[in-house]
């Protein structure tokens, strides 16, 4: 039996592994992917971080790139691999945790590779669980290719002909930018066209420098300002929304309402000539595999800075775990440090007799 099991081997899980290592805890990291960094490598090919190098350091190892550089997904994955190698974390890949329950003070983790037991568990699986598409997508003709942004790689996946991109967040606009710049076909856009965009640099300083300077990333989600930021419309970062929407082959059509066969009904028109749909419509959380966990109205765990209602169960890497920066690569350090301090003062190191009980 372990003192801790960490579920997830991306920035959240690795950040906690660093502190568990420093505390000489007995722990194991479980991850469902077949290599470190896969959660980033699986995303679209042109993906780059919004945050420059100096805001991407995990504790104990700086990101190996020049200041002001915006890393690609490949660089992030290599950084994670170097991080694991430097600290020699115990990791078991290809291990999907299907269920967690707690009996007599011990967590029982059921996986595709057998059962694991631990006194404490840290969930670092992030917010991207179930790709969401509206229910009417099932009414769309099978001749039309439908790809969620979770599975989008590059424009080569698309059929020849017109495309509909749905979703007005960062992912939606980045994909719209790439597709509309790479082909002359009509690209319909269904999403919020009133969203504000912010450049990556202002007056010679990176946007994240300004965010840090004015404390934008440090406001607690429970503060008045934090509540206003978290509930407000989030800007698109590093993508010129107005320029993209002004392109001759981009046509905003308002929100999608319904579909039937090869016809998509939107606020502005009925579309009958598309060959491919990209759904950049986000994700829905899924924590139903953890028995006894309390969830809020949005189906996220109820917690206090990552400390859940279940003794010994913790969360790291959730959006607004504590601040706006909680789900960013560099911002996760503060949350990890807080949880590590809590663990150090509230949870005794598992003694050898207990560790052998379920071994």
Key descriptive features of the protein:
five-stranded parallel beta sheet, alpha/beta, single chain, seven-stranded mixed beta sheet, FAD/NAD(P)-binding domain, 359 residues, 9 helices, disordered C terminus
Task: Report the top-level CATH class of the largest domain.
Answer: Alpha Beta
So how many helices? 9
Structural classification: alpha/beta
- What is the helix fraction of residues, given as a range? 10-25%
**Rg:** 22 Å
Largest sheet: 7 strands, mixed
According to CATH, the homologous superfamily of the largest domain is: FAD/NAD(P)-binding domain
Strand share of the residues? 15-25%
How would you describe the overall organization of this protein?
- Helix content is 24%, strand content 24%.
- Helix 1 packs parallel to helix 3 (73-87).
- It folds into 2 domains: 2-129 and 285-357, 3-Layer(bba) Sandwich (FAD/NAD(P)-binding domain), CATH 3.50.50.60; 131-196 and 233-279, FAD/NAD(P)-binding domain.
- By secondary structure, the chain is an alpha/beta fold.
- The strands form 7 sheets. Strands 1, 2, 3, 4, 5, 6 and 23 form a 7-stranded mixed β-sheet that branches. Strands 8-19-9-10-15 form a 5-stranded parallel β-sheet, covered by helices on one side.
- Helix 4 links the parallel strand 9 (162-166) and strand 10 (187-190).
- It has helices spanning 11-22, 38-41, 73-87, 170-182, 207-213, 224-231, 241-245, 332-346, 352-357; strands at 2-7, 27-30, 91-92, 97-103, 106-111, 114-123, 130-131, 145-148, 162-166, 187-190, 197-198, 201-202, 205-206, 236-237, 250-252, 256-260, 263-266, 270-271, 274-279, 283-284, 303-304, 307-308, 313-315.
- It is globular.
């Amino acid at each position: 039996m372990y003192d801790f099991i960490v579920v997830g081997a991306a920035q959240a899980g690795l950040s906690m592994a660093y502190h568990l290592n420093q505390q000489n805890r007995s722990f194991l990291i479980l991850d469902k992917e077949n290599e470190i960094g896969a959660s980033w490598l699986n995303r679209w090919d042109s993906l780059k971080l919004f945050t420059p190098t100096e805001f991407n350091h995990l504790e104990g190892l700086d990101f190996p790139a020049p200041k002001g550089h915006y890393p690609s997904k490949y660089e992030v994955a290599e950084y994670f691999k170097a991080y694991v190698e430097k600290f020699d974390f115990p990791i078991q890949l290809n291990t999907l945790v299907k269920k967690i329950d707690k009996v007599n003070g011990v967590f029982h983790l059921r996986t595709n590779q057998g059962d694991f037991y631990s006194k404490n568990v840290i969930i670092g699986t992030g917010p991207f669980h179930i790709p969401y598409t509206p229910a009417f997508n099932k009414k769309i003709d099978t001749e039309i290719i439908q790809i969620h942004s979770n599975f989008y790689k590059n424009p080569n996946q698309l059929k020849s002909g017109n495309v509909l991109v749905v979703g007005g967040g960062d992912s939606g606009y980045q994909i719209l930018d790439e597709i509309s710049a790479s082909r002359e076909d009509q690209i319909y856009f269904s999403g919020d066209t009133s969203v504000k965009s912010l450049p990556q640099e202002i007056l010679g300083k990176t946007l994240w420098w300004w965010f840090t300077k004015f404390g934008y990333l440090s406001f607690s989600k429970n503060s008045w300002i934090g509540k206003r930021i978290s509930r407000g419309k989030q800007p698109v970062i590093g993508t010129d929304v107005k320029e993209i929407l002004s392109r001759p082959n981009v046509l905003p059509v308002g929100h999608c309402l319904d579909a039937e066969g090869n016809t998509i009904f939107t606020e502005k028109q009925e579309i009958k000539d598309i060959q491919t749909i990209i759904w950049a419509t986000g994700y829905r959380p899924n924590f139903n595999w953890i028995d006894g966990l309390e969830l809020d109205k949005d189906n996220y765990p109820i917690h206090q800075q990552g400390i859940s209602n279940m003794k010994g169960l913790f969360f790291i890497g959730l959006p607004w775990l504590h601040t706006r920066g909680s789900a960013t690569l560099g911002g996760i350090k503060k949350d990890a440090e807080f949880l590590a301090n809590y663990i150090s003062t509230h949870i005794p190191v598992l003694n050898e007799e207990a560790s052998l009980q379920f071994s």
